């Protein structure tokens, strides 16, 4: 009599999904390599960062109208940006800790809800002081979204493709920026400026749609979540400031130089992102539609720069990519702001390389900062360093605002090139991490 087969175990491993092991070759090999869960995480991070950009640019695009409505000088309008960026440091640090303690997806949802709610609130502001408060609170969510989304995707990505994968996430900033310019052009062409700036802020409710999808579809990377849960010191600020000891390297040096790197890159970037629309309208005398057209070249360059920089950071390494584009960004700033009066075609053409270089330098940030920190404090380390740099870098656009009254906006924008020099120097204190596997 034959022996019956043993019963099938009720706890057997599920059949592997063939998509998880799809070939990682070709132009979109990095996307296939993420697998189904990773691609959903990518979609959540991409959408969150695009809408983060959209909500951020509601301010720079409406600054001329705001100045007229509230009777502000250049210093006061620049302060709106500075407050956003300074408070974003607090929001980024808190979101990083939350990401390590309660998970990447939960922290991502909180950041998106926060920046959406307070962007809409800005549209109801009755006074400049109220607008300043609402914009500061918007910075809490704005500061945390990128760091949390970047870590979520980095923990799904392979070491081979991490640079281009995170570069693609970064490219969503240009998508959100472009959407903001399109909506701005439509609203300000159809409505009076005194109403148009309010409507622009009210459209910041768009991220609510993303929140519903992320909550239902996106999950943390299982291996990273398990490793994080095993650590007794997850989400610890003291850990990222601990000095090294024999046999136990600390993270203090890494944290300090990563903050300096972020300060330089973001000081240069936000100087341009904040003041170029005003420069085009006030010193180049462009109309609303004309400003939108010129910004199209800048944004197209930014999108191409993010994607190209992502590939280069995998090929050249994290440090070489940042060094290269720090130099090129500084050169482009000097060229763009010294174009003679009347040479508007040159302003149009140079917008593309300017956007390209100042964005390509960011492509390696998501992968680089993720690779500098262990899993237990990856959110804390990346959230703090990126946003502390953003807060210190916020001094740059404010300085331009105060200098603009005497130097003109174009002359003061040269100050942004200094930031890229600081970034290049900061790399001297940081290691190369290309090819590093995240535990």
UniProtKB/TrEMBL annotation:
GO terms for cellular component: plasma membrane. Pfam families: MFS_1. The keyword Transmembrane helix applies. It comes from the Bacteria. Residues 1-20 are annotated as: Disordered. Keywords: Membrane, Transmembrane, Transmembrane helix. GO terms for molecular function: carboxylic acid transmembrane transporter activity. It is a multi-pass membrane protein. The chain crosses the membrane at residues 78-98, 105-126, 132-154, 166-189, 195-214, 251-272, 292-309, 321-339, 345-366, 387-404, 410-430. Residues 41-434 form the Major facilitator superfamily (MFS) profile domain. It is found in: Cell membrane. This is MFS transporter. It comes from Streptomyces caelestis.
